[in-house]
Design a protein that fits this description.
The protein is mainly alpha-helical. It folds into 6 domains: 10-162, P-loop containing nucleotide triphosphate hydrolases (Rossmann fold); 177-265; 275-354, Winged helix-like DNA-binding domain superfamily/Winged helix DNA-binding domain (Arc Repressor Mutant, subunit A, Orthogonal Bundle); 362-488, Serine Threonine Protein Phosphatase 5, Tetratricopeptide repeat, CATH 1.25.40; 649-781, Serine Threonine Protein Phosphatase 5, Tetratricopeptide repeat, CATH 1.25.40; 794-855, Arc Repressor Mutant, subunit A, CATH 1.10.10. Helices cover 63% and strands 5% of the residues. The strands form 3 sheets. A 6-stranded parallel beta sheet has the order 1-3-4-5-2-6, with helices on both faces. A 3-stranded antiparallel beta sheet has the order 7-11-10. The protein has a two-stranded antiparallel sheet with strand order 8-9. Strand 8 (305-306) and strand 9 form a beta hairpin. The longest helix is centred in the middle third of the chain and has 19 residues, at 356-374.
Amino acid sequence: MSGPASLARLVSLPSPLTALIGREEEIDSITGLLRSRDVRLVTLTGAGGVGKTRLAVAAAQELRSDFSDGLCFVALAPLADPELVTATIARAAGLRETDDRPLVDDLAVFLGEKLLLLVLDNFEQVSAAAVQVAELLAVCPQLKALVTSRERLRVRGEREVPIRPLVLPQRHPRPSLEMLTQYEAVQLFVERAREVHPGFTVDNANAPAVAEICHRLDGLPLAIELAAARIAVLSPEMLLARLGQRLPLLTGGARDLPSRHQTMRGTIAWSYDLLAEEERILFRRLAVFAGGFTLEAAEAVCGAVIGADLTVLDGLASLAGKSLLERSPGDGNPRFVMLETIREFGWEALSTSGEAIAVRNAHAAWCLALVEEAEPAMWGAGQIGWLDRLDREKDNLRAALHWTLSQGEIETATRLVALLWRFWERKGYLSEGRSQLASILGRPPGSTSRSVRNSALTGAGVLAALQGDYDQAIRLSGDALAEWNQLGDRQGIARTLLSLASVARYRDDYDGAETLGQESLAAFRAIADRWGIGHALTHLGMVAWVQGNHALGTTYYEEALENLRAVGDESGIFEVVLELGKGACDEGDLARATTLFEECLELSATMNDGAGRGAALTELGVLARLQGEYARATDLLMQAADLAEEHGDRRQVAYLAAHLGDVEVAIGNIGSAAARYAEALGLFLPMGNQVGIAQCLEAIARCAMNRGHVSLAVRLFGSAASLFSAIGAAPPPDREPTTGAATLESSLSPAAFAQAWEAGQALNLEEAAAEAFALAADLAVERLPEPPPAVDSPDSFGLTRREREVLALVAAGKTDPEIAELLLVGRRTAESHVSSILAKLGVETRAAAAALAVRHGLA
């Protein structure tokens, strides 16, 4: 052996030229483990480009004082032969090889009792050398190793730290600019963009594009850095537009990076090339799945066995272990997800393999089998579970529809949409469902059976009705009814009659709603369809209630519950109890209404139905507003909004924004109310929800009226009235636009009033929305002069108890996500509280709020 008798303190870490963004929690976790006496080997695992090496170097720097004999960084990426690992470690440690005895023995003696940290980087391609590392640790009692690898070493004593992509901002609703720039992914993008464009900043104009770029790149640091380098020549909006295909754009990494890290494709190819051939086959076939998959789905689409030696089960375990798949919990069934950047590579590999058509056809067949299995449950017991399962697979279902249409497989595509419309209805994907149905119904039927095509036609009528397109709903449902009559399909007839009855109710045609409802009820009774009987009775109960015949309505509801309980239709039962609660509220029996809505909460918990819980919380929030409990109303409605956001129900999010606007009106915060109504309007517009749009226009008009903007208010009242008239829906009498406008007639000359009203009626939807947004923005920034507080106490600022708690946390420097976690509320709720506090205190920033809180003893 040749070398020093004792090892001088060694520090051979790379010195990064850029600052590490975030990752404080990961560094704390790594250093905490390595400072533990019982931990000798820590492995950082994760996908290529996730930042394992950078993080290992940063953690090692933190540990400099903990290892008296130093830190030794060993780059293993250039190696292909595991037998060379020991020699590479020896050279990095300063040991020269001799012929006296095996190098592993020399290295063990050389390290001896030294307190040293080995950082072994990129271990995945020499994983067979894991035993050598374990043996070295075994004979050197104070030696510790920090390893980066795309898979575990799988030796005893190893502690794995999975490294995830950077945390991403939520998509809906988009965080404020201040909040957005707190996310590590956005911070990294900005810092790297400034390296090539020093004047780059994130502002309100480009913030949506920056946030979406980070999402499209899965929060992978390398991908974000490569994309940010393009800011030298592209704006964020232009960059986003080019990210439809990520890999061709993600090139041009720094020249001092390893070649595999100079392009994102090279980084992923590094992992792909290390796979066995059968693993490569499975990997590229799995790229057909969008949004993830289960083991059963993978076996159905890819084949239960890949080649001679690899089952799908073993293959999934291997690919997950190599960080090419991520495992996430499912409904008692593990789910696997491929990062979209990695999936794009797999998709390219599949496209050039010659297998793409067969694999995509197998994927479409699996999707069709799934919805065929789900369809019976969509009308009775088990509905909630199947709705949630289909929701998890919605991206796969979309991909299958796109593929079958592109291949001219009209029969398969029609069968899919004929079965899926009920899912789209129940989950609120109304615009998507209508678009998919229209794309099918607008094509020649080919060999599709009449009953399947007519099911699609029936669904198109239902979804049109729910979006307020009543004329189209009547035409589609009428055509469907005629076809069902020709086919003699009694269930189809009964369901379509109920759909037409609902349209009549939506249009306040209660005579028609009663007649069609009774016909539907009779048709369901004739075939002993208790699900249909229950829903027809529910409809008739609603008609009776709205006409003031509460006794008859209650009778209908009670019989409906009997039938729905018999078939186990949990969501139908929930709907009836909710309607009974609304009825009690209408009658002024608020105590009974509260009891019924709380029963709905219990039902939703039993069903594990987050959407149902949100609906119950919404009604309890509205009830609290009616009782003057405004703080409680806001809290309940915000909880409901969090749930709706979590479940992707943007329609409910929009209605909740409007409800929150009603609360703000009740407490006199007109500017905040206008902002809420504008938020709801912005959500309703892309959905095409014309009823919701009209209600928001009317609500913003009332805010303008409250602030004395008479002419502008009349214009919006006129536009809302025109839209209500066009869709054939009548608003509640106390919210009738003509009534609101009539109160302003004395404030304008007859000619000026008529001119404003007619101008509003002439506005198209886009023009009316633009005026409403501009007006709401003006109202939101208007501030009425407030007298200074007479006493420096929390109450003098109008803060609620919960707002004082939030203010104290703001003063303590907590972010909105931290506040949400500490108070056990949703992030959206925390953001709302902070916005309300800033408005009440009359300040613009959190720092100003904190200073005021300290000055007045509020924190």
